[in-house]
Structures are given as structure tokens and as C-alpha cells.
Design a protein that fits this description.
The protein has about 450 residues and is of the alpha+beta class. The protein has 3 domains: about 140 residues, 2-Layer Sandwich (Beta-Lactamase), CATH 3.30.450; about 80 residues, Helix Hairpins (Orthogonal Bundle); about 150 residues, Histidine kinase-like ATPase, C-terminal domain (Heat Shock Protein 90, 2-Layer Sandwich). The protein starts with 5 loop residues before the first helix and ends in an 8-residue tail after the last strand.
């Protein structure tokens, strides 16, 4: 699933909303400025025409225009037309379309040769049915140029303000949501770690984050109590069962020597085997429980892992042969590691026993040990029943078994892989698994070649 930051989402949304509002305001300003400039140009045209008309003298059927009359004033060019639209006097701008229709008291926009003009015409009656047209022409190319520059500046201002608002909003949200990031980070450390006694840092300000942190810590308190109760129960039960199991085993050993028939011996051996299995299970539970409670200490020393691996393979070769499975080995000689030899032997035995238990008749197991940089790399590969992808993360849990049809088998305790991962972790190593259903599995582990003394 793709990760999405809530800061980015909130910043994006409110920036889009503010950008929309800002764009509406700026567009409104542009329209207002454009209309204002146009209205100013129209007002100048109207005033110039009125002033020009005021200097004309009318007498019955005639009119008189003074010789010193100016036909250009403040950017407005004025010309006089007869009632048929024939130019009489005045000035006409270069490239101005001469066929522009005269329209009384009407503003027109005219374009010619790349230049735009604003035209205003007035018709004045004099004499008997005679009309004198006065036209004012003002270029608006300059106005439109200024409007274009204003629009470019407005767009740049809009983009700058939008970026500024987004950055400021992101910074403010980052500060506001900083406690959430702290809570996520600390909760993740608690979730990934083994120490459930850790707690979230309580903010000084009693706000929503304060209440959330308090609630999380209360939840962690209850979880820690539950896990501690579970550990204590496992330890207590294991201790209580050791004595009766020892009695059962000793009595079975005595009865085997007193048996009169082979059937009796077989039945008693079944009981003894089950008692041995339970004893092994309890021993592993006690070891894990003591380590989790910090009461188990291990003697770490440097030893020959290669030699130990050869011994483990030799020990389990007969078991594999009885299951019609061959064990192949590629073990580099003289690899020394620093750790608890007994535990690491149990780790490798559990991996190989697991491969035997879930192997197929006529199958194989490949054990490879070699050095890779500052680590010892080991792998146990088989072509057995494999593990489905959805169950890969579950195999490290206690008592979990992929093949439910074998849950009643007398082989294994259900703690094998759980103990394997625990042993690797206390040696500061890592372990991973690759598997395909009905094709087999490969467990790969890495152990540091040398490590400091450690207590569990």
C-alpha cells in the first residue's frame, strides 16, 4: 500500500482551496482594472468630443470651425464628417480603417495593421435636417499592453503566493503534527523491540496529543501485564510438570526391564517416548521463559562452527535416511564464531529436523555454511512441502505448524522455528526464509564472526 503523509494531504487540500480563492480575487482585480482603464479612455474621448463641439459656431444652415482648432489632444485624434460619412476636416490615424461605420453615441473597438483603437462618434443636427459627425479616435494598444503586463505580473504573483502559502502551511503543519510523529516513532520502537516496559513521552501541554499518549501508555501497561502473566504461567507450568514427567520416565525405564511380553514393552516405550517429548518441550519452554525474564545467562566463547555443523549433519543423517531423504553438505572449514555452542547447535538441529519432518520421500536437504564478509552465512534448503506465502510470517510463532494434518505427530514440539529465531537474535544475527508451496523452503541465517559477551 502506498504511503501518504497526512501533512502533504492537508497542505495540498488547503493550498488548493486558498489558490482557488486567490485566483478568483486576482481575476476579479484584473477585470476591474481592465474595465477601469476602458472607462477612463471612454471618458477622455467623450470629454474631448464635447470640448471640440463647444468650439464650433453654428449659424442656421452653416457652421464655422476656427482656423486654430486642434484636432489632436491628449492622445485623442478628432475628425469631422458630413452626414454622408465623407471626411471634411481633422486628422485620421495611420492605418486606421476608413470604412469604419459612423455610429452615434457609440463606442467601437477597431483594429488595423496590428493597432487597436477606441472610436467614439457623435452626430449633431443643425439647420434644416443637416447633420455634422464628429469622430474621436484613441489608441488602446498601450492600454492593452499595460493590461497584459499586469496580467503577467498577476500570474507570477499568484504562483509565488501559492508556493509561499503551501510552504508556510507545510511548516506549520509539521510543527503541529510533530507530537504525532514522535508518538508513531516511539510506538514503532516499542512494537519492534522486546522491551514492553518502554512508554511514550508525555507532552507538556495537555491537549489531544497528551490524552492520546496517556491512552497509549495505559494500553501498553495492560499489554505488558498480559505478556508477563503469560510468561509467568509458562514458567510455572513447566516447573510443575518436570517432576511428574521425571517420575513417569523413571517408572517406564523400570517397567521396560520387567516386561514379560513384547507387546507390554512396546506400549511402555510409547509412553516413555511421549514423556521424553514432553520433557524436551518443557526444557525449551523453560529456557525461553528464563531468557525473556532475564534470569538465564549463557557462556559465550569462540568455537569452530564448521566442526559443530559437521557433527549435527552426521547425527541427523540416520534420521533423514529413515525418511528416505538425503543430506548434502557444503561446509567451509575452520569458521569460528563467538557464541553459546549448545544453543547454536540446537538452532542448526532444529532447522535440519524441520526440513526432515516436512520433507518428501526421495527428497534432499542441502546444508551450506560459508563465510561472507564479517558474517557466517548458513542455509538449510529442502524440496519438501513448502510454506504458503500468507503463512511465512506465522512460522516463527510458538506452536504454529504449516501442515495441520501433522499436528498430532509425535515428531517435533512446535517450538523449533520459534527457538531458532530467538537463538539467532540473542547472537545478534538475522534469519530469513524463502519458500514456495509444494516446492520447498530455504532458511538462511547470518551470524557475526565475532561478538561481545552478552546476557539474555
Amino acid at each position: 500500500m502506498k504511503e501518504r503523509s497526512i501533512k502533504r494531504k492537508i497542505t495540498l487540500w488547503y493550498t488548493m482551496i486558498l489558490a482557488l480563492i486567490l485566483s478568483i480575487v486576482l481575476v476579479g482585480m484584473l477585470v476591474f482594472i481592465h474595465n477601469l482603464e476602458t472607462n477612463v479612455a471612454k471618458e477622455e474621448l467623450s470629454q474631448n468630443l464635447s470640448a471640440f463641439y463647444g468650439q464650433i459656431t453654428f449659424a442656421e444652415d452653416a457652421y464655422y470651425i476656427p482656423d486654430d482648432m486642434e484636432f489632436y489632444n491628449n492622445g485623442v485624434v478628432i475628425s469631422v464628417y458630413s452626414e454622408r460619412g465623407v471626411p471634411l476636416v481633422g486628422s485620421i490615424p495611420s492605418h486606421f480603417p476608413m470604412d469604419t461605420t459612423l455610429k452615434d453615441d457609440t463606442f467601437q473597438r477597431v483594429q488595423g495593421d496590428g493597432t487597436r483603437w477606441l472610436v467614439y462618434d457623435r452626430a449633431y443636427d443643425y439647420g434644416e435636417g443637416k447633420t455634422l459627425w464628429i469622430r474621436g479616435v484613441s489608441t488602446i494598444s498601450g492600454v492593452e499592453l499595460v493590461a497584459g503586463q499586469i496580467m503577467i505580473a498577476t500570474v507570477c504573483l499568484f504562483m509565488g503566493l501559492t508556493a509561499f502559502i503551501g510552504c508556510i502551511g507545510y511548516i506549520m503543519l509539521s510543527k503541529a503534527l510533530k507530537p504525532v510523529e514522535i508518538i508513531c516513532s516511539e510506538a514503532g520502537e516499542i512494537s519492534r523491540g522486546e522491551d514492553l516496559s518502554k512508554r511514550l513521552t508525555i507532552p507538556q501541554i495537555q491537549d489531544e496529543m497528551y490524552r492520546l499518549s496517556i491512552s497509549f501508555n495505559e494500553m501498553f501497561d495492560r499489554l505488558e501485564e498480559s505478556f508477563e502473566a503469560e510468561k509467568q504461567f509458562s514458567s510455572d507450568v513447566s516447573h510443575e510438570l518436570r517432576t511428574p514427567l521425571s517420575v513417569i520416565r523413571s517408572q517406564c525405564e523400570y517397567l521396560i526391564g520387567e516386561c514379560r511380553t513384547s507387546d507390554e514393552r512396546e506400549e511402555i516405550e510409547i509412553i516413555k517416548n511421549q514423556a521424553d517429548r514432553m520433557t524436551n518441550l518443557i526444557s525449551q519452554l523453560l529456557t525461553i521463559s528464563r531468557c525473556e525474564r532475564g534470569s538465564e545467562h549463557f557462556h559465550m566463547e569462540e568455537f569452530d562452527f564448521s566442526f559443530m555443523a559437521e557433527m549435527v549433519v552426521d547425527t541427523l543423517a540416520e534420521t533423514a535416511q529413515r525418511n528416505e531423504i538425503s543430506i548434502q553438505r557444503e561446509i567451509e572449514e575452520g569458521l569460528l564464531v563467538y557464541g553459546e555452542e549448545t544453543l547454536l547447535m540446537r538452532m542448526l538441529m532444529n532447522l535440519i529436523e524441520n526440513a526432515i519432518f516436512y520433507g518428501k520421500k526421495g527428497g534432499y536437504i542441502k546444508v551450506k555454511i560459508r563465510r561472507k564478509g564479517n558474517y557466517l552465512e548458513g542455509s538449510v534448503e529442502d524440496n519438501g512441502i513448502g510454506i504458503s506465502e500468507e503463512n511465512l510470517s506465522k512460522i516463527w510463532k510458538r506452536f504454529y505448524r504449516e501442515d495441520k494434518s501433522r499436528k498430532n505427530s509425535t515428531n517435533g514440539t512446535g517450538l523449533g522455528l520459534s527457538m531458532v529465531k530467538w537463538i539467532v537474535q540473542i547472537h545478534e544475527g538475522t534469519i530469513d526464509v524463502e519458500s514456495q508451496k509444494d516446492k520447498g523452503s530455504t532458511f538462511t541465517f547470518f551470524l557475526p564472526v565475532k561478538s561481545d559477551q552478552m546476557d539474555c
